[in-house]
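Example A, followed by Example B.
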Amino acid sequence: MAATIVTARSISGYSMNMRRKAKTQRCYSKTYRSRSLLFLLSFYAILSVCLSLKSKHFSGKTPYSWVNLVDVEDEVKEDEWYNMENLQGMACNAVHASAVIRHGARFPGLEDVNHLIDIHHRLVNAMEPDVNPGLYEWKNKFPSNNDKALHHLGEEEQEGLGYRIGKRLHTLFVDEDISDFRFIVSSMQRTKESASAFYEGFTRAMHTEDDIDDEFDSEVNDELMRFFALCAKYVYSVDQNKTAYKEYHDFLEGPDIKKVTTKIYEKLGIKEDVLKPVDIRLLFLACGYETAAFKSSPWCSVLDDDDVEVLDYLGDIRHSIKNGYTHNITWLQSCPLLSEIFFGFDETIMEIENTEDDEEVGGFTVGQFAFGHAETIGPLHAILGLFNDSTPIRADNRIHQNNRLFRASKISPFSANVVFVLYECVPEEFKDDEEVETADYYLQMFINEKPHLIPGCKEMHCPYTQVRERYSHYIDRCDFKNLCKKSPLKDEL
């Protein structure tokens, strides 16, 4: 199925300083109209929030660059991942790379947009216009036809990611034909557009603009990228089962969210029956969505950094249930994707090992890039054993989880990625000997472009056979049909 590259950038903005200045002036000019001391004090409170909301953690709705230090293109080191130089006595070159990538930053869903409009209508009826003019005069900027569509920031995230991966593995990719790469997407348009933007940056890292083909083939495969929608046991026992979300609802109705809600009532001068807990979560997400798309949001003015920390934790409880470790079926269902990744490594090794001395090695995929969702990459993290806290996050232990490993804003933001690189290693003295008969194979893993220890390994580089053996049960005995067979609810959780 062909996918066309998306290059348009739908929204542009001022420089950071100009945006900050404009935002400050808006806060000032609109609040200045108030003549009462109460409203003057409200002005300073709003101005302070406009300038001091530092937290950029919006759980799974966090843009990639907010939590990951992204290298400037000119500073990306060519072939940074191609040679594995820290394996003593061995010369190692990359022979295959496999990446699983979440789609880029997107617009909110239509249901959330309509809900936000309803919240705003209730607030306007309950608050005085001059208490928070920016919020009072808020207008919805999310068209109905942008329902969960990739937006300009998501395109930029993916194009930049493609460029950096292409540059870091330049020698592995540069001379390969497009047929030596595999691009896998889900049936959702945002993954297709993410793949297109990624491809644009990827090819730009290796070719001049005249050499870039504007179209490429991508494979729609929901069995690999949207297994969570096809696994009846998961859908029945977790995704659509309110009981499975008990910890989430306990926290949503608990004292932490109530405290945030009370603070919002005080800031806006409204009665304590205007907003429900679920409304608080949505205005928090609106703050993140609008800041990502438009650089600022009046919804942020009712929150402070402590509020964001609480609401980020609420999101992490939800992600732990929906995409993480809370229920076994959530991560076990990702075994087809894990199998596909390792079968690609197996095929690469087999092709290299079975090539005759007088033949040119070829015919296998050198790069596999799969584009999915938070519900794709979260279960992959879990089946690999990544970000598994010794004490699960619960509704009653937030204060003890400040250093938790499972923080969705950091591990699975928009454009989150897991990249495996397979290396062929030979003794240093034989690195230029084309007739060397044996080689060892090592694996390295990168999470959001940073080296990450593979569970069970002592070094960042790990023998491939050791890693494969660790996950062999999920790779070789993945029976998705039986695993996902719907059974009585009491047996599910």
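Example B, a separate protein, is given below in the same form.
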Amino acid sequence: MSLHPSLQSYADAWTHSVEAISELVQPLAEGEWNWATPCPGWSVRDVVSHVIGVDCEMLGDPRPIHTLPRDLYHVQTESQRYTEMQVDVRRHHTAPEMTAELEYTIIRRSRQLRNETRDPGTKVRGPRGTEETLEEAMRRRAFDIWVHEQDLRTALRKPGNLDSPGALVARDRLLSELPRVVAKEAGAPASSAVVFDVHGPVDFLRTVRIDADGHGTVDGAPSLGPAVTLALDWETFFKLACGRVKPAAVADRIKVEGDHALAQAILDNFAVTP
């Protein structure tokens, strides 16, 4: 028995991104670990701590017993408190300690994936004590770690891997959110369509169609008379969708045709990650 075929692409994406992260941070000087990333309140060290912490939890390790400081301005919700625990507990770790723990975690997690024989539908522990299927957990992990690889690349000014296996997982994950963003959050009118024309290392044309009841679906067929067409590059698309940039900061990289008020409503609600 070996890893189920439907899980292999997620394992490959995780491996590609986590090895890229390791290569990025291995040569860093102590001070570079403190550089700010696009994640509010998080340094390079904090992002790597998060990567280590989540994979340790996926390995079944117990969560750290730790009291968070009260002055973390970016921690406002219980969900954020849960996530911050694995980060804050490593905040004073040195560069050698960070790289050593990252490498050890990669070795352990890679071994776990090589020996994984469970069915994709098997229930496993999810974030904050929830349950999810193994397939959902691995999909979410591949998406999350690629986004954090890009956070580190932005912070360290070392762009790359915009078309890696993780990028394709991220594309599919973000596309699945578009119907909700357009129909529910932005309030696109019934029986309308919105086209997303994305170019760059990952390129695609997708149409979100709103039916007569106001429900949205997404497909790859063009629309003859869309209410809005948004044309933008892949990097801008995923950074908006992951809340890494505000629409106003990248307005010059987005071309809008059609209803500008609806387009703005879509862009204002575009961020879909926690």
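On Example B: The first helix runs from residue 5 to 25.
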